[in-house]
């Protein structure tokens, strides 16, 4: 994984010695916002106006956090307005790289740099922190706007509506208050919960994480037995925040991260819901099974030291989902 310390690369895995074996994710460092007129957003500084062609998105097809941003880029009609660079799925001693010997990788389309860390250093030469995707880059000012996926998707949700003419709203104001605790539980126990289980280095830390994960999957199964989407009759940000974890669960997290009490296909409602979201127009084109199956099994030497990539289960995500008649 590695990290930068004052602009210098250190090949260091997460240190769980001070947390009782528990994995603790670090906060994103860049928290500016693109807004319709360039005014300051909820955090950061002003000057990032929504304009076609101005911004560049760095992603990994393997990473669920980056996947969120790709989904919103597709849903909101931004593919012609925000171009992307795709890193290699192998994340080894140099972290994310721009090697191009794997299908779907692009290299660094902006600067031709070899490593993702070079993008962070270009923005801030003495930067410290983990080198993560996604990164939203501003071509006009030569800065990183944000590397926080939850905030990038909210920018994509509304900031560019005047550019694209797409006013679909996945964070509707009337549902925000009710959505926030749902998002918080899903992030803590599911999105991040699979990592807490997979990266745990003590039995106690693993047990705590995996129990919370399956408690939440049971809760989601029950919730989706009564309503089509997490917040009712409308698909929202909450659904798209959950989906990247669900689509990776059976091929990766179930085995690789020891999240093996049940598979998603063992939950009738959750499994049908996953298929519906996968079949949503534009979404399947953001899913690259080969990238995330390769990434997790090949990159995590502490979990899979021989780097054997399994063949994985045969799963039909295109099977009819049957959720169109759900009430509400």
Structural category is alpha+beta
Q: Average the pLDDT over all residues and give the rounded result.
A: 95
Largest sheet: 4 strands, mixed
CATH architecture of the largest domain: 3-Layer(aba) Sandwich
The fold-level CATH name of the largest domain is Glutaredoxin
* Whole-number count of domains: 2
Assigned CATH superfamily of the largest domain:
Glutaredoxin
| Spatial extent as radius of gyration | 19 Å
The arrangement of helices and strands along the chain is EEEHEHEEEHHHHHHHH
Physical arrangement of strands within the biggest beta sheet: 4-3-6-7
Q: β content, as a range?
A: 5-15%
The counted number of beta strands is 7
Instruction: Outline the low-pLDDT stretches.
Output: none
Give the distance, in angstroms, between the N- and C-terminal Cα atoms.
Answer: 43 Å
Fraction in helix: 25-40%
Specify the overall morphology.
globular
Total helix count?
Answer: 10
Protein model, in words:
By secondary structure, this protein is an alpha+beta fold. It has two domains: 162 residues, Glutaredoxin, CATH 3.40.30; 109 residues, Up-down Bundle (Glutathione S-transferase Yfyf (Class Pi), Chain A, domain 2). It is built from ten helices and seven strands. The strands form two sheets. The protein has a four-stranded mixed β-sheet with strand order 4-3-6-7, with helices on both faces. Strands 2-1-5 form a three-stranded antiparallel β-sheet, with no helix packed on it. β3, α1 and β4 form a beta-alpha-beta unit. α1 runs parallel beside α3, α5 runs parallel beside α8 and α8 packs across α10. It is globular and about 50 Å long.
